[in-house]
Specification:
It holds the Pfam family HATPase_c. One of its GO terms (biological process) is signal transduction. It is found in: Membrane. One of its GO terms (cellular component) is membrane. There is one protein chain. The protein is an alpha+beta fold. It folds into 4 domains: 115 residues, no CATH class; 91 residues, PAS domain (Beta-Lactamase); 76 residues; 143 residues, Heat Shock Protein 90, CATH 3.30.565. The protein has 12 helices and 12 strands. The protein has a 5-stranded antiparallel sheet with strand order 2-1-5-4-3. It has a 5-stranded mixed sheet with strand order 7-9-10-12-11, covered by helices on one side. Strands 6-8 form a two-stranded antiparallel sheet. Strand 1 and strand 2 form a beta hairpin. Helix 2 runs parallel beside helix 3, helix 7 runs antiparallel to helix 8 and helix 10 runs antiparallel to helix 11. The chain is elongated, with a radius of gyration of 44 Å.
Length: 451
């Protein structure tokens, strides 16, 4: 409620308390007033007068003591409540009654609210500490005097120290003062007490208790890259091992069979046919393995793109006419880009061929469209096949679900488009069975000038 709306209520409470005090004072004076009236009206002897006056004084004193206790008790309660709030004890409550009952009620409500705020603050602090402890990034918070006031376990590990030993030390003593001079987000090569390598450094200004402070976050890039590299090698080796075993297992089996056959004496009548069949199988599997290794070389030795001006719409229409199945193309009249024509053509051929092979032969439906966005050119290829398989390895080199597939088409398309500042995505259609392959490349300044 706004302060202006509280003013009448506050004034009413103060007026009620004033009436309470004034009424008690008048009640205290009543015996004296009554005796004064009696003494004025009635002709009493002096002894009786003094006796009545003493009685009136004693009665007034008793009433005064009762009134003081009646006035000071709620004030004492209110003072105790305020003292508890000042000391941070929000559990103490007062009994709302008497002239200041509404004020005590408000103080109780304030204490309850402060207690709830403290619980929320402690929960938020606990969540923050757990979050910082779970972060792999090293987090440091320095106060206005460049003294360390907060550090997470990753930061302790990076500096090889415990938080009690690090707190209060300056950024110069910790050897990180030069990191604030680097541009936030930059990558540096650095040796810390706990680790050396490449790190990303981010820093920002903070406010702590009304004073300035600084936040420093250090990310270990080498560890992240090593983890990603290890996972990539694991996926690649699984696919390589599967493909090589598929070729070597039948070769080993046939070679053993032919060796057993040649050791027999006399040779069976059909030995020549068995020998020809076995050697033919070995030849086919060796050729498949050779094609597989050639595909690997193609991925590993892809040169940087040689960009030149070309019309993506014309290229897409030309490639669509080369496929065996009919492909409908919807594209802008002209879609100029700066790209490597040979590489981009290979990427589009791979996606178009995948769509044609996935579509059913009796009623194939493959559609391609291309358009320009503010900073990129997009090509979308839609088919009515069964859709992409539910696998996270679609873009892993040599992974394939097609019989006789090489498993490098999607991987090569992604590698080409990423070299052009773009990418490739494959997803299921939302309106019908089938797949949607989307390819995009960055237009760049050169492409913008070509327009």
């Amino acid at each position: 409620m706004p302060p202006a709306a509280n003013e009448p209520a506050r004034a009413s409470r103060l007026t009620r308390y004033q009436r309470h005090v004034l009424g008690g004072v008048l009640l205290t004076l009543c015996p004296l007033l009554l005796i004064a009236i009696v003494l004025i009206v009635l002709p009493l002897p002096p002894l009786s007068r003094w006796l009545l006056l003493g009685t009136a004084l004693l009665a007034s004193a008793a009433l005064l003591r009762w009134h003081l206790r009646r006035v000071t008790r709620p004030l004492s309660t209110l003072a105790s409540l305020l003292e508890a709030l000042r000391e941070g004890d929000y559990t103490l409550r007062g009994v709302a009654g008497g002239a200041l009952g509404s004020v005590i009620y408000d103080v109780n409500a304030l204490a309850q609210r402060l207690q709830a705020e403290r619980v929320r603050f402690e929960e938020a602090s606990h969540l923050l500490s757990k979050t910082l402890a779970a972060l792999d990034s090293a987090v440091f918070v320095f106060d206005g005097g460049a003294r360390l006031s907060l550090v997470n376990p990753a930061g302790q590990h990076l500096l090889q120290g415990k938080s009690p030993d690090l707190f209060g030390r300056s950024d110069v003593e910790l050897g990180v003062q030069d990191l604030f001079a680097a541009v936030s987000g930059s990558v540096i090569t650095r040796t810390f007490p706990g680790r050396s390598g490449r790190f990303e450094v981010r820093h920002a200004s903070l406010r702590q208790q009304g004073r300035g402070g600084r936040l420093l976050v250090i990310n270990d890039l080498d560890r992240v890259l090593r983890d990603e590299e290890r996972q990539a090698w694991q996926r690649l080796l699984r696919v390589l091992g599967h493909e090589v075993n598929n070729s070597l297992a039948p070769i080993r089996s046939i070679a053993g069979t032919l060796g057993t056959l040649s050791a027999r004496a006399p040779l069976p009548d059909d030995w020549a046919g068995d020998l020809r069949d076995g050697l033919a199988l070995i030849e086919r599997r060796a050729a498949a393995l050779t094609r597989f290794l050639a595909g690997y070389s193609q991925l590993a030795r892809l040169p940087p793109p040689q960009r030149r001006a070309l019309d993506l719409a014309v290229l897409l229409r030309t490639l669509a006419r080369m496929e065996s199945a009919a492909i409908s193309v919807a594209a802008d009249a002209a879609l100029p880009v700066q790209a490597d024509a040979d590489q981009l053509e290979q990427a589009l051929i791979n996606l178009l061929r995948n769509a044609v092979e996935a579509a059913p032969s009796d009623h194939a439906e493959v559609r391609a469209r291309a358009w320009r966005e503010p900073d990129r050119a997009v090509v979308e290829i839609i088919d009515n096949g069964p859709g992409p398989p539910p696998s996270a390895n679609l873009f892993v080199p040599f992974f394939t679900t097609k019989p006789g597939g090489s498993g490098i088409g999607l991987a090569l398309a992604r590698q080409i488009t990423e070299a052009h500042g773009g990418g490739v995505a494959l997803s299921a259609r939302g309106d019908a069975p089938g797949a949607v392959a989307r390819l995009w490349i960055s237009l760049g300044n050169d492409a913008a000038d070509a327009r």
